[in-house]
């Protein structure tokens, strides 16, 4: 937390809550005594039911759709004459850390609920639905729910999940847990793996042990799914018929293969463009990339058109540049943007090496990482040099012990994943190659040359602020992103030292700075647009809506585009 904020706020966690009858509450007078007028921020997971039980009626009214949803309405109609059971299978994140539930658990839980309810109908919700289909297969009482609607679809599926009567849930997933809590059905039963770790004493929880799973899962009858959906017939339909068909398919997407789902999503994005819902079209483009790696020239053109329609001109430029590089034709590059400042953007790909100063953390995405991702987005090759987290020196400090434990078990695992699989964040699925700074810095010049030789047909440009790498005597063009505000979001300037910063100014060919006083010795200077930076800072404390379009903001887009221009 930056020093100016530390003076104004106090951060406390949930262990400071105190019992007040059957509830846990914050003793406000006690904290006013201790912290005076400081704002108090709470950190934690707040899973103890005593913290929120008395607010459930209010929470249920808050978690109500602002606008009616045809998909949710259609889902509710399918629940007639059956016992609807919501099955939430969360895998992303958990499966990487080895903390997801086995599919044998879900098979055993389905068998368990079939024994309890003769008219059970299982609605499967998952962030990896194809994985669930592969392992659970086809059955008359199993329905795979897939709104196919981007972030709005996540919300629609969540609301559908809250409307089921009973549940089979992934351990530790708060998405499924909150849906179960918000449901007010009487006598609901919820099945979980293992033992009770939820601070809940209600009889509604059925916990399946390893012994239960071993006994019940073999009773599950598996039948392989036939992916026989006729996508050609769907594409012949008129727009109105397609909308109706998409709702019906979303309520049970069993026979839709991953390839056909990609085509359906593309159709839906085009339908949204036709109807003027441009933001939804953008969201579905995000989904097409995240889940299917869609990366054709036609796709990037369409994506650019959708972004232009939303007023995201700089971002649309990135898409058009990518399309131009894929097609080899730069003509019509700025077809909808009318922005003369970027008329000379290159249509030839380069190789950028991104080197941050400071440690890498799985929870921390620096502006240099973002700039690298955007440059890669333009069709360039990008490599990242990452530094492992720093060791904590005070072994007796409780916060340091907690942080060190986090780094060893979480950050280091993500670090190894990045080194092995490449840098991927959100819609940036490409898996850009990553290198360990400790390996590179031992013989920097040779190692940088080896990284550059990975793409022998591309001109290599180094973008960063690591003193050792930026000070190398090499033939590559260097771009120094300095520590002037607001680029020093990790407060690295003091740690780096002015002498090493001055050396980077001296060794760089191009300097990105907001510092008017810094002597740059006739170097090429990139000045970010201060209005864009101010606009981003002003909006930083606003609530992020599901309709916000992308990971990166206008100031980062502006800087990345200017780097592309300066290095062309």
Write structural notes for this entry.
The protein is α/β, with parallel strands linked by helices and 568 residues long. The protein folds into four domains: 42 residues, no CATH class; 163 residues, Rossmann fold, CATH 3.40.50; 87 residues, Alpha Horseshoe (Serine Threonine Protein Phosphatase 5, Tetratricopeptide repeat); 216 residues, Rossmann fold (3-Layer(aba) Sandwich). It contains 24 helices and 19 strands. The strands form five sheets. It has a seven-stranded parallel sheet, with helices on both faces. Helix 5 links the parallel strand 5 and strand 6. Helix 4 crosses helix 11, helix 7 crosses helix 8 and helix 14 runs antiparallel to helix 15. The radius of gyration is 27 Å and the shape is globular. About 2% of the residues have low confidence.
Q: Could you tell me the mean pLDDT?
A: 85
Percent helix: 40-55%
Number of helices, where a helix is a run of at least 4 consecutive DSSP H or I residues: 24
Number of strands: 19
- Shape summary: globular
CATH topology of the largest domain: Rossmann fold
Rounded radius of gyration (Å): 27 Å
Tags for this entry?
568 residues; alpha/beta; Rossmann fold; Serine Threonine Protein Phosphatase 5, Tetratricopeptide repeat; 4 domains; 7-stranded parallel sheet; 6-stranded parallel sheet; 43% helix
Strand and helix layout:
Layout: H1 3-6, E1 9-13, E2 18-20, E3 23-25, H2 28-35, E4 39-43, H3 56-62, H4 70-78, E5 83-89, H5 103-116, E6 120-126, H6 129-136, E7 142-144, H7 150-162, E8 166-168, H8 174-182, E9 190-193, E10 205-208, H9 210-216, H10 231-235, H11 239-251, H12 258-274, H13 278-292, H14 297-309, H15 313-327, E11 351-355, H16 367-377, E12 381-386, H17 398-421, E13 423-425, E14 428-432, E15 434-436, H18 437-441, H19 444-452, E16 460-464, H20 467-470, E17 477-481, H21 493-496, H22 498-507, E18 510-512, E19 524-526, H23 530-538, H24 554-566
